[in-house]
Input
Amino acid sequence: MISMITNLLENRRVWILFFAALLMWSASPVDWVNLTNEGAGSAIRSIVGSFLAPDLSPKTMGEVIQAMWITLAYAVTALSLAIFFGLPLGLIASGVLSTDQRFVLALAVFVRAYLGMIRSIHELIWALLFVSAFGLSPAAGIIAIALPYSGIIGRIFAERLQDVPEGHITACQVSGASGLKLIALARIPTVLPDTISYLFYRFECAIRTASVLSFIGLGGIGFQVHIAMSDLKFETVATLFYSLLALILIVGLIGRSVRKRLLT
Amino acid sequence: MGTSNTRDRTYSFTPKIPGPFALTFIGLGIPIFIASWVFIFVESQGKRSLFSLENLDRAQSFLGQVFGADTWKSRGAELPDVFILATDTIAMSVLAIALAGVFSVVLLPLATARQDDQRAGYLANSGYAVMRALFVFTRAVPELLWALIVVFIISPGIFAGAIALAIHNFGVIGRLGADSIESLDRAPVVALESTGASSAQRYVIGVLPLVSRQLLTFLFYRWEVIIRTTAVVGFVAASGIGYQMRLDLSLFRYDEVGRLLIAYVVIVWMVDLLSTLVRRAFK
Amino acid sequence: MNAIDKRTGTEYRLESLTRSYGNRTVVGPIDLTFKQGDKVAIIGPSGAGKTTLLRLIAGVVSPTTGRITLRGTDSRAIANKNRFKDVGFMHQQLDLIPQLTARKNIEVGNSGRWSLLRTLGSLLLPVHDNRSERVASFFGLSDFLDVRTSLLSGGQQQRVALARLLVQAPALHLADEPVSALDPSLADKTLQVLCGRTGIEGEFVKTVVANIHAPELAVRHFDRVIGLRDGSVIFDKPASEVTDEDTSFVYDDHQKEAKQVRLPVEVDNWGRD
Output
């Protein structure tokens, strides 16, 4: 019986059929007839038009730049918290600290499970829950981002630490390193370049998430987009979108040059 | 035996002035870091402090209600609603990944730098730049913001949310896929060219099979991410778990929130499980 | 340069040493004795168990049977964290950390002696360890010290690994193919440093056991040569007495006639002794 199920699970055709069926089932509740809104055509035209001619007036730009700064500030603080808590948790979760003690190993498993659980829930849902629990405050938003981010940062860091080739470790052990010295010499320098470039990627994600977080009332790009949309000021929306793009491009560029320098 | 010298303690300090890049990085980075924290601190004044006593009480009662008795002993009428919301959320995510997948796979060849096709020339280059820029742009804007625009055109519902998700993920998958294709060994594709295959045929028969396994991994990995984000897009697209959760939070119906949270975590785990199983089957 | 030595003897002893994986005996049984200050080369074809033998002596791998005594103390009695004073090992695969500069990799040799704080300091602060720098100069690495190790050539990396061993300065230096990537004249110079024939001031009397791939190098730089084949010692004699027949015998591959011819040649050699 069990082997029949596992055979089924390994069969590619079965999966293809399954997903084809899933796709069709997913499409069924969609109301294809009334799909588009009234006046969708003109809406599309004005939106596309505004994206080609965004609002660049000084007054708007001033607000946009302010929104950019708010989003950036949220992203920086949330990410720094996530790094501050995530990296040590990852170190523990990787189990490299345990010499023989089963306690440390159990701790590692526990931390792993904890980090995994946090990741399941999207930052925005965390944010909603925090805001409902603790009221609207910047801290609620920041912790809402920092929590799942520390989870994934910790998990990736743990995996990288574990993947260090055995030879590196043995060579340093023979030279006399052990315990923390060993980790500092053999594991950390090996994983550092990749970890740093991953953290820059996380920074980009944090900016995106921070911009959306502002949607629930904390100020920032998302908040301004919401306002502009309700006023039907599509040109302003376009400017805001482009400003977000600019922010992410800059961070991406910095990340790439850091990565390049780390590789030489 | 070896002669034992006194422990060698000589070392030399060689401070070197960091290069211009490092200087600008640190010179800008530290002020931004400090300024961000100061800003947050200032913003937090006057708002309810996170850790004040009354707040902790409130949080405790919140948690109590979310995971309290009412959540578990639901009246028969509510479970089917939660179930429908969960299935709506799953459906939205499936549509999203399908749309993103189809569009990226079809448009990918335009986004890969063609090194061996001299005839394409200038046209191919501009197409490449446009596609890559499109990927970057759609990737940069988060799904929720796309959703704000999409609901103007498409009536709110599963499909609107799916499109918003698909737009963003089109950029992600497109970028990953284009990079994959560009790092391929081009020999089999070039061989196809000599048999007279058109570029479309070359793509379908030559390139796609080579890169299909990686693309599949990308798709399912993105599905895992999308299912988590679908709930959130539901805020704007007015469907799915996220929408209902927001409603219930504002109505203080925390027991319903608890049920929705559980449903949410369950479908996330289900998708994660499916994704792992599929990737194993297609190894 | 040694840390204060607690060992009482001067002899290294391998007694009835074997190492098996399943029912395949890779090394042994081997009985070997050498003393502090000896320079021993081990030659033999690949797969002869040379690397396993060195790993056994280094304590990286435990013997299946037999005993290893390092200067009067049983190898098993030495705590792992103190082992670095007694024995150091340069792997055939070098196992340098690619992301560190050559200098930092060489300084790893100090890890046994340095405290955690000092180790962190060497990694984070712009501090150079003078001793490591001096050892590096013996191997001609001075110009490459601040280059990322992954960017160095095979020969340079090999010398970095060897320098790391010398910085550690254990009583017993074990090196697995230390000069395989070096051209002949560079190999000569490097082995001169390894075997302490350069008269560098501050040099201390060390014991060296090395797997050498080229018999001429072994004979030229070491005092004693051991021929290993299929895990057993074929010959063990002073370098001056090693003949061409010895070396070709050890490297001889699966030739039935040679097997029959070998025995008289061996007896002949012993006859000369």
Remarks:
- Residues 87 and 172 of chain C are 5 Å apart (CA to CA).
- Chain C has two domains: 11-242, 243-273.
